[in-house]
Predict the structure.
Amino acid sequence: MSEVRFIVSKEEAGLRLDAFLGQKPELGSRSRAAALIKQGAVTVDGEVRPKSHPLAEGEVVTVELSGALSLQLRAEAVPVPILYEDEWLLVADKPAGMPVHPSPGHY
């Protein structure tokens, strides 16, 4: 079983617990975060809290990821033509339907 920990920053203070975790790529989505909270796999400073719990700066959020729930992503080497690239912008000619980030139905 693996565990991930996050420390709430000043900018993140005030966010709901599920919204905070939904922003973390380790968890994949807000709905997945809500499911983990409902299962009791998430604690804030060692205490189980509801998904609506408002976070405060410095709180430690711990998530227990079981083998069945841990998100296993694997990168694939897919050739995608780069049409333009500079320091600030990249334009790629990807095929329609190719996801650009993990979301439900793509993993």
